[in-house]
Structure formats: structure tokens, C-alpha cells
């Protein structure tokens, strides 16, 4: 689709009905598709059509759209007098790059997800390309059941981070075979463009603990606590810690905590990882003296 065509559509987009929330069901069509709807009331009833709330001249049981294009997307409804018979929310499929920035020369959108624990919280981040509402849904591969979802409305050209809460990962269940998780990300622009991308991953590949809750140094004694977001008990969800010491001269040394011996340090900081899955390390805690 040539750019000039888009420019001409801007004025059109402004007057269109705006959707505050992601519509619960969409009729997803391609550019130039032809669409025919049939709608019937009781025998003898006159059927009328509305588009984004505006009465259409067409009446009768059938509405036809030839050559779908952006100006024809939106909410179509048929009515028998004041009675709503049906409604369809028509969107036009766009390339995913209409909504999602890709990284470098890659075709795939750059979407990153990470989980601070196994307890059902997942953060995902991507760069949006166009003003849109995004719906993020998490499911297991080969099933449709939703584990958790969230939606966010965004201006174009921004970095977004969403948090999916209460996801039932079932990560402790000994499922065989273990099915990966799939993040389904749908974008819908105000002008009716639509695209959908997926990212497949295993939970253990994206676990990154938050930084340890604190590091306390008193004389030669160090004490610390796991991040508050980490799963308990730590006997079941162990963490290992890495301590970084800075000498008075500014030299750094790293230790896994079980290896630590007497050291002369000036400043120290700490981080953690899940040793069983060798997860990503958390970020470092602040330096402590
Ligand atoms: C479409 O319009 C119908 C009739 O006004 C309304 O009931 C429905 O909620 C609208 N759908 C969306 C997604 O806005
Ligand atoms: C996850 O996202 C939420 C909301 O954007 C943010 O407040 C929180 O700090 C994020 N957590 C992590 C571990 O990145
Ligand atoms: C998550 O679950 C808790 C307890 O079941 C509930 O109170 C809370 O509203 C849920 N949060 C979301 C975002 O669904
Ligand atoms: C750090 O250690 C000191 C001395 O043992 C103690 O008084 C203080 O409560 C500790 N702080 C934390 C956050 O545990
Ligand atoms: C899960 O962890 C998040 C922080 O990562 C925390 O806010 C939430 O309360 C925890 N939920 C449960 C059920 O433990």
C-alpha cells in the first residue's frame, strides 16, 4: 500500500469511533477481500445497518463490501428498529512491522520476556511502531486456554513494558512432555489495522530474579536476604549469590558466596541466580561499605 494513501486517510481516522478496550471478537480480513454479511430479524422486519454508530444507506438482509480497505474497517451492526441483531468488528490484516519494531536486519519483532520468580508474574517488553491498543495473552503451546492477559494503549514509536499477573504456569507440575509457553501479542490501530505475533519460550529460560532484598555488612560479617518476589521456601527454590568486593584501590573481585574467605574490602555488592536452571543473574544490589 503506497504511503500517500495513508496520508489521505488521516482525516478519516480522526472521526472514527474509538475503541477504549480491545474488542472481544474481531473479523480479521485481508486488503481487497470481499465480505458479505447476512442478518435476519423476525419475518417481515426491516433490517438496517450502522457503521461505527452511523446509519448506512443500505438496508436489507445483506451487506456487501467489495475490496476491503482501511476506511471500511470498524464496527458494523444490523438492527431491527431499536433492536440490535448482530455486530461485527472488521479489521484489516497488516504486516507485523506496522506495529512491532524489528531488531537490526531480523524479520522477527524484538520481544523480550522475563519472570522475577515462578509465582505467576511475567514482564514483557517491545518497541511499538504505531499508535495502537495491544492485547498480550499467555497460553501453553497447542492449547487455547488463556493463562493470563493484559492490554495496553500506546502512542507510536515507544518502548513498552507490560506485566502479566496471576499466570498459572504450573511450573512445578511434572508435565510430560513439557510444553512451552506462547505469548500472543495482538495490535489494533485506531484506523482498523491489525496484526498478531507470537513468541514461544520455556519459563526457565526467562527467569531472572530481582536483586537480593539487602546486603548488610557489619565488621567481617555479611548478611543478605533473597528478593521479596522470590518463591519460598528457598529449600525448594534455592538461590545462589555472588558477592562483588571492591578494595580501597578500586580493584574488583567476585565470589560465589560459599567460597568466600577472609577478605579486606572497602565496598561490596551482591546479586543472585537460580542455580538449578542456571537462570540469568539478577541485577546487582547497591554498593555497600
Ligand atoms: C459495536 O457496536 C455495537 C452496537 O452499537 C455495540 O453493541 C458493540 O459493543 C460495539 N463493539 C465494539 C467492539 O465496540
Ligand atoms: C515489571 O513491570 C512492571 C510494570 O511495568 C514494573 O513496575 C516492574 O518493575 C517490572 N518488574 C521487573 C522485574 O522488571
Ligand atoms: C490475582 O489473584 C489475586 C488472588 O487470587 C486477586 O486478588 C487479584 O485480583 C488477581 N489480580 C489480577 C490482575 O487478576
Ligand atoms: C544489619 O546488621 C545490623 C547489625 O547486626 C542490624 O542491626 C541491622 O538490623 C541489619 N539490617 C538488616 C536490614 O538486616
Ligand atoms: C509473586 O511475585 C510478585 C512480585 O514478583 C508479587 O508482587 C506477588 O505478590 C507474588 N504473588 C504470589 C501469589 O506470591
TrEMBL record:
Keywords: Disulfide bond, Glycoprotein, Immunoglobulin domain, Signal. Coiled coil: none annotated. Transmembrane segments: none annotated. Residues 1-21 form the signal peptide. Residues 111-177 form the Interleukin-12 beta central domain. InterPro entries: FN3_sf, Ig-like_dom_sf, Ig-like_fold, IL-12, IL-12_beta_cen-dom. This is Interleukin-12 subunit beta-like. The gene is LOC113417910.
Amino acid at each position: 500500500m503506497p504511503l500517500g494513501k495513508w496520508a489521505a486517510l488521516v482525516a478519516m481516522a480522526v472521526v472514527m469511533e474509538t475503541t477504549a478496550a480491545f474488542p472481544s471478537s474481531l473479523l480479521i480480513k485481508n486488503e481487497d477481500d470481499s465480505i458479505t454479511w447476512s442478518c435476519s430479524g423476525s419475518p417481515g422486519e426491516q433490517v438496517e445497518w450502522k457503521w461505527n454508530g452511523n446509519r448506512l444507506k443500505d438496508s436489507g438482509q445483506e451487506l456487501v463490501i467489495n475490496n476491503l480497505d482501511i476506511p471500511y474497517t470498524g464496527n458494523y451492526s444490523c438492527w431491527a428498529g431499536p433492536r440490535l441483531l448482530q455486530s461485527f468488528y472488521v479489521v484489516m490484516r497488516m504486516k507485523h512491522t506496522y506495529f512491532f519494531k524489528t531488531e537490526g536486519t531480523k524479520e522477527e519483532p524484538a520481544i523480550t520476556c522475563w519472570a522475577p520468580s515462578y509465582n505467576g508474574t511475567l514482564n514483557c517488553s517491545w518497541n511499538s511502531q504505531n499508535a495502537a491498543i495491544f492485547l498480550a495473552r499467555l497460553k501453553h503451546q497447542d492449547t487455547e486456554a488463556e493463562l493470563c492477559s493484559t492490554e495496553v494503549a500506546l502512542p507510536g514509536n515507544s518502548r513498552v513494558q507490560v506485566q502479566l499477573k496471576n499466570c498459572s504456569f504450573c511450573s512445578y507440575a511434572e508435565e510430560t512432555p513439557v510444553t512451552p509457553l506462547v505469548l500472543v501479542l495482538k495490535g489494533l490501530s485506531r484506523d482498523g489495522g491489525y496484526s498478531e505475533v507470537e513468541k514461544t519460550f520455556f519459563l526457565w529460560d526467562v527467569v531472572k530474579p530481582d536483586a537480593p532484598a539487602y546486603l548488610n555488612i557489619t565488621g567481617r560479617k555479611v548478611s543478605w536476604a533473597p528478593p521479596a518476589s522470590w518463591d519460598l521456601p528457598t529449600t525448594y527454590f534455592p538461590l545462589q549469590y555472588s558477592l562483588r568486593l571492591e578494595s580501597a584501590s578500586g580493584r574488583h573481585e567476585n565470589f560465589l558466596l560459599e567460597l568466600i574467605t577472609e577478605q579486606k574490602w572497602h565496598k561490596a555488592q551482591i546479586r543472585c541466580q537460580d542455580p538449578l536452571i542456571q537462570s540469568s543473574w539478577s541485577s546487582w544490589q547497591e554498593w555497600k561499605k
